[in-house]
Amino acid sequence: MNTFFRVVASIAIALILLLSGVMGGLLLARQMEKSGALPQPTIMGSSSQDPLVDKIERVQEYLDREALKPPSDASATAGAINGLLESSGDKYAQYFDAKHFKFFNEQTMGAFGGIGVSLGEGKDGRAYIIEVYPDTPAERAGIKAGDVFVSIEGVTRDKWTSDEVVKRVRGDEGTKVTVVMKRKGAKKPLTFKMTRATIEYPNTKAKLYGNVGYIRMGSFNAKSAEEITREMKALEKKGAKGFILDLRDNPGGLLTSAVDVSSLYVKSGVIVRVEERGKKPTEYRANGRSITELPLVVIVNENSASASEIAAGALQDYGRATLVGVQTFGKGSVQTVRELPDGGAIKFTTAHYLTPKGRAINGKGLKPDVVVKMKLEDQMDEKTDKQLAKALEVLRSKL
Fold it and tell me: 203, 246, 326, 331: which is deepest, by most CB within 10 A?
């Protein structure tokens, strides 16, 4: 269906859900009609007192009777929901069918079925490999950091975004997936065939640089604060006198996780203020679980977004950390996930957030205290990682 049909279909379905509470809306009615439980609608008749419902019933009837390729129930549902989300103008709105909602939940909980890589996006929007995790299908197949996606399961695109890669690469453990990658220096694209495995997502990466503890964080999931606490305590035992928290290429995650992580460094006070439509701003405060007062530097870049900006903004406002890097992405909005009756879900924007000092981040981002520009791929080698080098320099000046 084209965009107009999808939008109309979406509005009709939304009205049915709101007014009658019938799960599945028109698609449920459609199945009942096919089984004989309801009389078949006719093109000239009206099966509803709502003109929008009548309109979508007519479009559905035309497609079922005359379209060369009538939409399936699954594609009609996805088209209708996506149409409604698109019509809201919310660029972060997203529809998950039951399968992909399962993957989404696995990601936020820290484990999922996949190949074992972390992804980044360049300024051109192309997804590339930031890191290949040890003892995973990707490592065993020979995929390397810096590889760029060309084709997944026979589908080739000029540009794959990280979201699109995740949807196609993840799957049930034991199933197979084939990807084609472009590698710098290779004469032609490389093909990798892998069997998906359950990946225990290594969301944190820790290292000691002399007396400086370094922690890189992939996303803000349900285990993040627990993982960082464990890494910090281990680094302190090894002699760390200060910490670097690396949030580069961290796309965000759970709002509550951002508050919990920030609370590790801030004893009390507001971490973020959330503004919702028609409501007074909600304040999320430090949870009282601060574990260190040691000096802190946070590294950010153009792909640090959402929950990353909540944490970095709070730490910067309180003077708790020095921000090093470049301007952050500027995604100062909160997405809410609502489950659907069929096991799927929608994610859409319900609020904007402000830093403790009232700074709006959406569309603006955070400006680091120390600006260090460099190419995204330079962070894959410590010898060329100027942002890390500057962070170490700034942190050591505090000791």
Answer: 246
Q: pTM (2 decimals)? A: 0.67
Asked whether 138 and 117 are in contact (CB, 8 A), the reply is yes
C-alpha Rg value of the chain to the nearest Å: 24
Please indicate, yes or no, if residue 94 is contained in any of the structural domains.
no
Q: Which of 147, 246, 249, 317 is catalytic?
A: 317
Q: Which residues contact 68 (CB under 8 A, 6 or more apart)?
A: none
Q: Which of 219, 257, 262, 306 is catalytic?
A: 306
Q: Is the pLDDT of residue 26 over 80?
A: no
Which amino acid is present at 278? G
Spatial separation of the C-alpha atoms in residues 5 and 2, rounded to whole Å: 5
Q: Residues 63-69: what's their mean pLDDT?
A: 89
Q: Which domain holds residue 250?
A: 204-335+348-398
Active site residue 306: yes
Residues 158, 213 within the same domain: no
Q: Taking a C-beta distance cutoff of 8 angstroms, is the pair 351, 313 a contact?
A: no
* Token pair 């390729």 in the structure block, residue: 69
Tokens 């069997």 locate to 195
Strands 242-246 and 111-114: unpaired
C-alpha distances out from residue 291 to 130, 229, 240, 245, 343, Å: 30, 8, 14, 14, 39
Domain membership flag for residue 292: yes
Do residues 234 and 214 make contact, with C-beta atoms less than 8 angstroms apart? no
In a domain, 95, yes or no: no
Any domain includes 79: yes
172 is catalytic: no
Active site residue 268: no
Tell me the percentage of the chain whose pLDDT exceeds 70: 84
